[in-house]
Amino acid sequence: MHPGETNPMGYLGTKYTLLDCWPGMIFPGIKNHCRQPADWQIIYYHWWSGQDQHCQNGNYRGMPSSSVLEPILFLYHHTRENRYLSFAKYIVEQWETPDGPGLISKALNGTAVADRFPFPSSWWSYENGQKAYEMMSCYEGLLELYRITGQPEYLKAVELAVQNIMDTEINLAGSVPPLSAFIMAWNGKRNLLTTPWRPA
Predict the structure, then answer these.
(1) Least confident segment among 10-14, 16-20, 65-69, 129-133
(2) How far apart are CA 163 and CA 96, in angstroms?
(3) Does pLDDT of 1 surpass 70?
(4) What is the pTM of this model?
(5) Range of the domain at 33
(6) Do the domain assignments include residue 119?
(7) Buried b / exposed e along 43-67 (16+ C-beta atoms within 10 A)
């Protein structure tokens, strides 16, 4: 695993600490507790890592480390401290660098979630840009950033990605294919035996 995952204040620890605590961020003690892993993330990715390239860290085109986006914005909501909003914007900007997953541009130009990158030679790798959970976590964060900034392309990218998933990836059980991946398994919707489940 990447050091950012295994470190107690790495992105997994930061993400789930903030998600668990955000309802209590109205209390100063909990708010201060949440600042610590968030500030460590900012320090790590801007200085300690030795590179200012967020999407080069870890597996899946940087989407796992980007999945802190939503809880970082929850912290911004409760503190109104600009460093958290700036960090969130930095994460999203990194998506559109040559090494990033292109979550906004590829959604806007209609690229299916299963077709965004070639199928990887190694599943647990940086080259794999099809990991479903991490991608959806990033889009949840992008939606939260839209609520704060009002940037219309953020909302549009989320809507188009969700529609594509509903059109091409939802299986008979109402889930995505195995391995938590968008891979157009079994040739996608075209080979389904019946209409997949849809929410009412």
Answers:
(1) 10-14
(2) 21
(3) no
(4) 0.81
(5) 3-190
(6) yes
(7) ebbeeeeeeeebbbbbbbbbbbbbb
